[in-house]
Amino acid sequence: MTREQSVRWGILATGGIAAAFTADLVDLPDAEVVAVASRTEASAKAFADRFGIPRAYGGWEALAQDEDIDVVYVATPHSAHRAAAGLCLTAGRNVLCEKAFTLNAREAEELVALARERGSFLMEAMWMYCNPLIRRLVDLVRDGAIGEVRTVHADFGLAGPFPPSHRLRDPAQGGGALLDLGVYPVSFAHLLLGEPSDIAARATVSEEGVDLQTGALLSWDSGAIASVHCSLVGGTATTASVTGTLGRIDIPYGFFHTDRFVLHRDGREPQEFTADPADGPRGSLRHEAREVMRALRAGETESPLVPLDGTLAVMRTLDAIRERVGVRYPGEDLAAGLTPA
Fold first, then answer.
1. Could you give the CA distance from residue 43 to residue 47 in angstroms, rounded to a whole number?
2. 235: which residues sit within 8 A by CB, 6+ positions away?
């Protein structure tokens, strides 16, 4: 693939996140959405009509076998990520897969092994990692702007209420706060500190067996500690901060798609960093799309911004938290990749 070629996308699923991603994708001059698939032809056709997509498939297999597609964006509920992404990788397609990447680390390891075996590109759609301001924050931390990192805090909560029939309350669909919302605070901590050496957690678990609210304390051998929280029963501040021996960085509401943050350093005035208007509106998913297309043109099979080993580490942490709070999905056991407490 040359630098000048348009990247041809297939969209697998037609829900809200698929629509948001496709809306941003069609605005990129070097991207072309050529096909969409859903479990029903009617849903795929309606989505295709909405976005002017040439082909609509009433099943995943046809999309996976479409040789005109360079990369498939998998936007199903995460309970179906293993099956959907695996189908596409097996057919020779490159894949961008929504987060949480899979239900558990075992499924994630299977997808990564399949992609590496076939030499295909695979990336978790952790758009936070591709945000230019988050990348700037990471550079500041790594350059020592706040000294040695000591604490990280991040939270993400929605007020709800979500009825028992909602997918977020359904164990069969991987429901609960942790995989839908908590993946962001956990991923933020991983971005700055890597995989923790110890994990403690508590949760409020629904009658259906999913976590309605979860808090975890992650710690590292360096002495650093992160507190992460997620909720389906209360709208939290949804902020993040990282504190070091020489200062602190605060990210306001919506930290995972931020357009500003403030650097506080001992003995200096606070310094605000804001998004470049040229980067597009807040909440844009174009940055992760651009990273996928950059990598494909460069012949890379994974992104240095969202490395697969990092995705696997996050999934191990999510598994460990679920194990400690007693949340299991249908058919899971310790052999499925969960870490014992």
1. 6
2. 157, 158, 159
Q: What DSSP state is assigned to residue 110? A: H
99 is catalytic: yes
Tens digit of each residue's pLDDT (9 = 90 or more) over 98-150: 999 999 999 999 999 999 999 999 999 999 999 999 999 999 999 999 999 99
The residue from 99, 248, 286, 290 that is catalytic is: 99
| CB distance 87 to 110 below 8 Å | no
The identity of residue 180, as a single letter, is: D
Q: Please state, in angstroms and rounded to a whole number, the distance separating the CA atoms of residues 24 and 286.
A: 6
Contact 289, 25 (CB under 8 A): yes
pLDDT band of residue 333 (cuts 50, 70, 90) is low
| Whether this model's pTM surpasses 0.85 | yes
- Amino acid (1-letter code) at residue 312: L
Q: What is the pLDDT of residues 235-251, one digit of tens each?
A: 999 999 999 999 999 99
Please state, as a whole number, how many other Cβ atoms lie within 10 Å of the Cβ of residue 87: 20
